[in-house]
Amino acid sequence: MSGSEALCFDHPVMRRAARALGTYVSRSPVTVGYLALLLATHVWCTAVLSTAEAQRVLLGVSTHLDNLQGHPLRVLAGSLLFFDGTLTEITSEAFAGTLITLGLGVAVSLAWLERRYGPGRAYGIFLLGHLAATLLTVPVIQVALAHGWYPDSVRHAPDFGISYGAETVLAAAALLLPRVRRLAAAGVVAWPVLGGDWSGVLPDFTTIGHLLAAAVGFVCGAFLLRAARRAAPAPAPVPEPGPALVE
Q1: Max Cα distance, the chain (Å)
Q2: Which long-range contacts (CB under 8 A, 24 or more apart) does 59-65 make?
Q3: Contact call for residues 84 and 161 (beta carbons, < 8 A)
């Protein structure tokens, strides 16, 4: 290593960044492992497999109606191994989605919930949101198809990834922020609505799924907030003034 490289790594900013990264890894080890897995599957699909092979893999874990009816467990579990976005096209809408789901959702909110409440509760909320939002959109899609509000191609449209779980932990974390709770909660709801497409009287089913995931997250956050308030120590009683001394 040259002297300039040694000085670069010895820079105070670099030392602080290394300490922050070490603290993040030690306090959120499960989230770090999950992030590594998501990045590995993304690189596998984008850099190792051909476009046709990657398409087959992603269609195989898509939680659309046909797959849910034929292989529900496979697609519900397999969908959690991928994120639908990009890491390279930084000016695209897909990259903005990556920043929200992989960045704010998993790397920030899920890691924070893991540190504060443990990996069991954090990932329980994440999985609950993923499962509930996916399954609750099924009857919505079926009704929309029956009334002609959605095209029939929705039955086998690609729909995979962590975004429902990410939306759930985003909502839960937003509700637990003490001073900016309302603003953060509004932002969590706003991003899927602003990015959604409308098909007749309904938005697209992924927008509905994200709103359902946010609702699950708000409910989970409310339970955590209530539990924290119950566990908080009661304020110490203020002693009553004693009788005045008469001289």
Answers
A1: 97
A2: 59/158, 61/160, 62/156, 62/157, 62/158, 62/159, 62/160, 63/134, 63/159, 63/160, 64/154, 64/155, 64/156, 64/157, 64/158, 64/159, 65/138, 65/141, 65/142, 65/154, 65/155, 65/156
A3: yes
In terms of DSSP H, where are the helices of the chain? Answer: 3-9, 12-27, 29-43, 51-60, 65-70, 72-78, 93-98, 111-117, 119-146, 163-176, 181-195, 205-231
Show the low-confidence residues of the chain (pLDDT under 50).
7, 245, 247
Query: Residue 241 corresponds to which tokens in the numbers above?
Result: 């003034």
In eight-state DSSP terms, residue 202 is E
Structure-block tokens of residue 27: 């306090």
User: Model confidence over 197-217: pLDDT tens digits?
Assistant: 876 678 899 999 999 999 999
Q: What sign does the CA torsion over 184, 185, 188, 190 have?
A: negative
Residue 103, SS3?
Answer: helix
User: Could you report the per-residue pLDDT of 169-203, keeping only the tens digit for each?
Assistant: 999 999 888 777 778 888 888 888 887 787 667 88
Q: Please give the single-letter amino acid code of residue 145.
A: L
Give the predicted TM-score (pTM) of the model: 0.86
Tokens for 102, please give them.
């992989």
**Closest residue by Cα to residue 31 from 111, 140, 143:** 111
What is the C-alpha to C-alpha distance for residues 85 and 5, in angstroms, rounded to an integer?
34
